[in-house]
Amino acid sequence: MSIFKKAHKSPADIVKSLKSVLHVLFEQQTSGRKMDKAFEDLMKNLASMKLIMCGTDQHEPQSELVAQLSQELYKSEIIDIILKNLSRIDFEGKKDFTQIFNTLARRQIGSRQPTVEFLYKKNILDILVEDTMTQTLL
């Protein structure tokens, strides 16, 4: 084990970091270097989330970490924020978020599908239609 190896962030840390990055990107009026750094951090956080949710070719996703990340995403309302601003995220970020969202949507605990229940309560279809209408008008 190398002493220089980076420690992996916990799901709670990733979600907290992602929420602060999203605040900078979509709620504050920032530009220049700070905006570039925020987009870079967004991509890193989405990649970390995708690694937890989907695993790699060599390692399967750990169900405990997937459950923790899912719960953090539900509590933080990050799904709503990203969906409302999906058109402002670059192509690679959209691809990562799509894989994360797809994995969340297919997640099943017994006969329950917690993400589907969460999305139903949030009326997610309205959010997606609103974003599409906004893009059409621009």
TrEMBL record:
InterPro entries: ARM-like, ARM-type_fold, Mo25. It comes from the Eukaryota. Signal peptide: none annotated. It holds the Pfam family Mo25. Belongs to the Mo25 family. Component of a trimeric complex composed of STK11/LKB1, STRAD (STRADA or STRADB) and CAB39/MO25 (CAB39/MO25alpha or CAB39L/MO25beta): the complex tethers STK11/LKB1 in the cytoplasm and stimulates its catalytic activity. Component of a complex that binds and activates STK11/LKB1. In the complex, required to stabilize the interaction between CAB39/MO25 (CAB39/MO25alpha or CAB39L/MO25beta) and STK11/LKB1. This is Uncharacterized protein.
